[in-house]
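Ticket #370: bound-state structure for zinc ion.
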Amino acid sequence: MAETVLAAVRTAPGTTELCEFAMPDVPDDGALLKMEVAGICGTDVKMYAHPVIEAPVIMGHENVGTIVRAGRAFVERQGLGEGDRVFVEHYVACYQCEWCRLGEYRHCEATDWRTNPNARRYGYTSCEHPYHLWGGFAQYLYLPWNCVIHKVPDVVTQEEAGIITPLSNGVEWALNDAGVGFMSTVLIQGPGQQGLSQVVACRQAGAALIVVTGTGRDATRLELAKRLGADRTVNVDEEDALNAALELTGGKGVDVVLDCTAAAGTAPVLLGIEALKRRAGTLLVQGELAKFPDFPLKLLTEKAITIKSARGHSFRAVELAIELLASKRFPLHLLSTHEYGLEDVDTAIRAVGGEVDESVVHVSLLPWRA
Ligand SMILES: [Zn+2]
Ligand SMILES: [Zn+2]
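RESOLUTION: The complex was predicted; output attached.
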């Protein structure tokens, strides 16, 4: 094995530098992952332009690779070791709190960089911390005893492996949070990688109607939505999405609205509240806005709407997403539109942000690609 590890380090806002790190000494309770693919999402775009911490960070929080070195205690604890291909959740758990006991690592305080300066979270933790390799935009990733890993079968291709995270979110948000199931009617706003993953989760769960909205720029993504199981797509530049949702449900409105838009302001939430059925619908929000002036709280209460917050995924949701990918039931590889090597991390992140071309859906970083 090489003596050094090449990594793309975010050294300042919107700036990446390739750096070499010494190959870490793996302790008895640790392991080393040879990276295969790191998925990139909208959060990376935000964290790249406006980092929350100033210290240098190897980004990349949606990581799949093969364990190439593992200590005895690591194998004992994880039941996985050298030669195993795994998906690594970005949460590094404490395994002591109530959330970790439930497999809900996303809520563990120990993983939250907002409240805990010593938190370990892949793609967010500074490479100045011991072992340095805390992000997937690198040839290797360090795995401590308390990492959260899932076995990925070989039948899942590299392309498919790159979208485990958005699909896990699809399962978590549509099914677990919003309760989409048999004969549900669903409005999904935004046909990006996240919206399209929701389409697949809703289809698999048995939804009767899936409507996906997008803008004039989303033509290819809306086409893809149909191939993945959407019943109807709406270009909001040409058609009134509320009218469409009401018409398709015989005037009743939909059971569930999933907001998967980016930087669309208050409009998707306002539309969602209007498009939901008269009583007891569910609205899933991403909460990008710090404030919401003139929020229609009265209407929300009158319609008995439940708001759910999109917050990552549970352990179980990841397991189900990997099973769904392995089943090959949906052409999910179509989501994977762009791939870049380590030298092009900057371009790759900008591509997710829509700066490179309009056909982008999902972007993967392949750290070993020449
Ligand atoms: Zn992500
Ligand atoms: Zn915990």
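RESOLUTION NOTES: The mean pLDDT is 95.
TICKET STATUS: resolved
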